[in-house]
Every structure is written in C-alpha cells, then in structure tokens.
Known about the structure:
By secondary structure, the protein is mainly α. The protein has one domain. It is built from three helices and no strands. It has helices at residues 2-15, 19-38, 41-80. Helix 2 (19-38) runs antiparallel to helix 3. The protein is flat and about 60 Å long.
Amino acid sequence: xxxxxxxxxxxxxxxxxxxxxxxxxxxxxxxxxxxxxxxxxxxxxxxxxxxxxxxxxxxxxxxxxxxxxxxxxxxxxxxxx
Length: 81
C-alpha cells in the first residue's frame, strides 16, 4: 500500500510541482472562463495569456531569489567549516 501511495504522489508531482504556481494558474483559467462567458473570447484570451505569463514570471523571480539565498547560506557555511 505504501508503494502505491508513493507512486501516486510521484505521479501527482509530475503535474503539480509547485502548489502556488498551480493554484495561481487555476485562478487565471477560472477568471478567463468567466470573462469568456460574459464578454468576447478575445478578452478572455488576453487575460489568459497575460495572466499565465505574469504568474510564470513571478514564479521564476521567486525561484531565483530562493536559489541566491540558498547559495549565500552554503557559502557562509563553507567559510565557517
């Protein structure tokens, strides 16, 4: 049973590696769907494109900041050790 759960977690991890990124994209898709129902598809497409690109850019910037902090922490530990 543990093996099955571990395999299921790995499978889900292939699609949802970063939870905040996945939630933000789902929010953008939901907003675009609402706009598509209320307005023309062009506006919904524009929101979908701009929203997904914005979320992706924010996620990349966040990842770079985390990597820099981790790199600085490792360098500090190596200097002390």
